[in-house]
Specification:
Shape: globular
Order of helices and strands: EHEHEHEEEEHEEHHEHHHH
Number of helices: 10
Number of domains: 1
Structural class: alpha/beta
CATH topology: Rossmann fold
Strand content: 15-25%
Amino acid sequence: MFERISGSLLDPDALYASNIELFHSPEIRGLNMLMGFTGFADAGHVVKQINAELLDTLESEVVAVFDADQLIDYRSRRPHVSFVEDHLQDYQAPRLALYRLFDGLGQPFLLLAGFEPDLQWERFSRAVLRLVEQLDVNLVTWIHSIPMPVPHTRPVGVTVHGNRPDLIEGISSWKPTVEVPAAVGHILELRLVEAGRKVAGYVIHVPHYLADAEYPNAAVAGLEYLGAATSLMLPTDRLRESGREVGRQIAEQVEASEEVRQVVSRLESRYDEKTEGTVRRSLLADKNHELPNAEDIGAAVEAYLARKDARP
């Protein structure tokens, strides 16, 4: 048992400012909440694309805004500003906010979107949990993506985790024991489960050779999984069109390189061999449907993150 000698833990409510009128409206209680944080992994820029698609195409209103100055390390993730001839403009301030949106059928839902906090993870988690409880959120779903040794010519894979077996069984059979770098979404999921709230996390598998570029097909898959879990009609048309163009570019690059063709061919052979006669099986499963080496997967994610951190 620990006891503070003086003072108290920093108030999580002081991390955000809320839209008072909307926040206290009964219309936003009992809704489903989606979460997506940029900054961790985000192979194929899946979270970035999903957040942009939802906020750009759907009717939205801000419920609460988090104080970026308390949560972000500006020197490690410097915001951008435009220098135009002799003056500065268009400063892109980091933003993390909770929104109320309406899907294609007019159904309301909540979206917590923006940068992943660099600081105060536990305090931030308490703040989000308090919002979830005050708004009596029905189900929290969150999404992120990781690089995987899978071919782009096969369906986008997913791993699901959380405390909703009905959303996991039959979709996710990849159940390794592996240590990977934590994200704030992981901490939030743990705290939500501890509080008895319903939560499901979706990990989208992005071909490792496409992890550093925007891969719209993976974002489409992410929106489809989130929509199915929450019974929402989420927009995918623009991403599907972008995916067709990216697919053409990838096909041209593969055709132009014998080495790349061989890599993709080997991945296809492995995928087909390991999934033959199975439904929604892990893309890396062996004949007994188990991962060959979970530590290798953790190492691949760490290597990808190291490349991102090394960039200026």
